[in-house]
């Protein structure tokens, strides 16, 4: 089937927007409740055909939803990619965070107490969901989170965070907007129940705007009621680049998906040795049938009974070694995935050639650079949330200066590196405090000489 025979674009002379006509099998289904967008060709396959992917890329400016729907399915088709994203999430969730009061003239104990209260509210909430969703914006390009505010037992406003599927949202003009059309009435009605997220007074005004639009309607989001994050990895080359780093992996992951399927078929056909039954020319039909059944049995229960005049031979296929090409290509694609998502490969997969500790440390530092990028993205958005929390619970801050969100990695010490430094410097005559050494290595001083290990040369006495 020629997929492009169904898709026709025409330009509307009035608003000069591209209006895409989709066939029935490629139309967006009207959804109840949340109205999860489904690009119909992907209902029956984990990933699209190359022609479907090309089509989604072609219309990405007019309707980004088909492309975004493909991008969000990529991790489901590549376990290594899922692990890389999980590694980014876990790195962020392992961070420590706090809310620091603004520096005012003199010590303000009230502001310090309020900052501690805001930090406690973050801890009590499902703040981890927001952190993971903000990390996704560095990977997928953008994220949307709705904070639902309610009063807690202390009569203070606390937020519950709802990550929203990014398929119905896309960057335009440097900020994230909602995009819906007339076939999204159910989704629009659901969004409209909380119409304050948009610039509308109620649900009916939103539906009226959709009905009056030609093609897709792009709606601004109200920053007071929704948290959005847009990260453009190619700023300066394309202003509203769609899909983040995952878009670069589209064809890589698609080819990997088909490579694994072909590899499985190859193994089924060629990796198993060929079982050949031999019989004499004078053997009757019954003897041949017994031999045939014996060969079949060897493939399931590895046992068979044959006449002593017959013979079964196992022949290993010479083409089995050609299967290495599938493995090499899979490893190549996974290295590309590691470089794009983690910035390095040594901490995410074991290379056949191996590695050394020094190179591993360099790669670990590159991974930490990605973590720093996540921290900057998170801090920028969460500070908006902190200002909202403060205003709801305490009103305007003194001098108009709000507290700030601070997130940082847990302190990590390379004890082997410390030991080498101490050994080298002490040999050069540098003295160290025994108490500091015990504290650094979390060791306990000996209670007596009989309890001590080592001699005068030992630094840990």
Give the helix/strand layout.
Layout: E1 8-11, E2 18-21, H1 50-58, H2 65-77, H3 79-93, E3 96-100, H4 109-124, H5 127-140, E4 142-151, E5 157-164, E6 169-172, E7 175-180, H6 185-192, H7 203-211, E8 217-220, E9 227-230, H8 244-248, H9 250-271, E10 274-278, H10 285-298, E11 311-315, H11 324-341, H12 357-394, E12 404-408, H13 415-427, H14 434-441
Antiparallel strand pairs: 1-2, 3-12, 4-5, 4-9, 6-7, 7-8, 10-11
What does this protein look like?
This protein is α+β, with helices and mostly antiparallel strands. Among the domains are: 254-341, no CATH class; 415-461, no CATH class. The chain contains 14 helices and 12 strands. The protein has helices at 50-58, 65-77, 79-93, 109-124, 127-140, 185-192, 203-211, 244-248, 250-271, 285-298, 324-341, 357-394, 415-427, 434-441, and strands at residues 8-11, 18-21, 96-100, 142-151, 157-164, 169-172, 175-180, 217-220, 227-230, 274-278, 311-315, 404-408. Helix 2 (65-77) crosses helix 3, helix 3 (79-93) crosses helix 5 (127-140) and helix 6 (185-192) packs antiparallel against helix 7 (203-211). The longest helix has 38 residues, at 357-394.
């Amino acid at each position: 089937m020629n997929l492009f025979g169904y898709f026709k674009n025409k330009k509307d002379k009035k608003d000069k927007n591209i209006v895409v006509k989709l066939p029935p099998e490629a139309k967006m289904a009207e959804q109840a409740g949340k109205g999860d967008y489904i690009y119909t060709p992907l209902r029956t396959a984990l990933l699209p055909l190359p022609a479907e992917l090309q089509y989604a890329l072609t219309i990405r400016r007019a309707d980004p939803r088909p492309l975004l729907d493909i991008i969000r399915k990529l991790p489901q088709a590549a376990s290594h990619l899922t692990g890389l994203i999980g590694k980014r999430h876990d790195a962020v969730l392992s961070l420590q965070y706090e809310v620091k009061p603004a520096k005012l003239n003199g010590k303000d104990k009230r502001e310090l107490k309020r900052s501690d209260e805001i930090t406690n509210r973050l801890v009590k909430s499902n703040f981890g969901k927001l952190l993971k969703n903000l990390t996704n914006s560095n990977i997928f390009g953008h994220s949307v989170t709705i904070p639902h505010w309610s009063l807690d037992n202390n009569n203070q406003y606390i937020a519950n965070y709802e990550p929203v599927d990014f398929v119905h949202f896309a960057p335009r003009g440097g900020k994230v907007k909602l995009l819906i059309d007339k076939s999204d009435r159910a989704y629009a009605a659901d969004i409209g129940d909380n119409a304050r997220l948009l610039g509308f007074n109620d649900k009916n005004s939103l539906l009226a705007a959709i009905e009056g639009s030609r093609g897709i309607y792009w709606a601004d989001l109200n920053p007071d009621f929704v948290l959005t994050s847009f990260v453009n990895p190619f700023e300066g080359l394309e202003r509203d680049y769609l899909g983040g780093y995952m878009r670069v992996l589209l064809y890589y992951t698609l080819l990997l998906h088909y490579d694994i399927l072909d590899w499985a078929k190859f193994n089924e056909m060629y990796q198993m040795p060929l079982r050949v039954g031999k019989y004499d020319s004078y053997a009757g039909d019954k003897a041949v049938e017994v031999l045939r059944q014996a060969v079949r049995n060897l493939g399931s229960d590895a046992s068979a009974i044959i006449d002593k005049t017959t013979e079964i031979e196992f022949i290993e296929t010479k083409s089995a070694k050609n299967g290495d090409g599938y493995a090499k290509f899979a490893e190549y694609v996974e290295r590309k995935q590691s470089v794009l998502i983690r910035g390095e490969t040594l901490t995410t997969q074991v290379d056949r050639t191996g590695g050394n500790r020094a190179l591993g440390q360099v790669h670990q530092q590159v991974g930490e650079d990605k973590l720093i990028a996540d921290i900057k993205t998170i801090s920028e958005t969460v500070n908006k949330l902190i200002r909202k929390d403060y205003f709801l619970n305490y009103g305007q801050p003194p001098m108009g200066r709000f507290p700030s969100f601070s997130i940082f990695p847990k302190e990590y010490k390379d004890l082997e590196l410390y030991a080498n430094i101490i050994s080298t410097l002490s040999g050069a005559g540098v003295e160290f405090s025994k108490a500091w050494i015990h504290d650094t290595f979390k060791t306990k001083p000996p209670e007596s000489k009989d309890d001590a290990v080592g001699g005068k040369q030992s630094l840990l006495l």
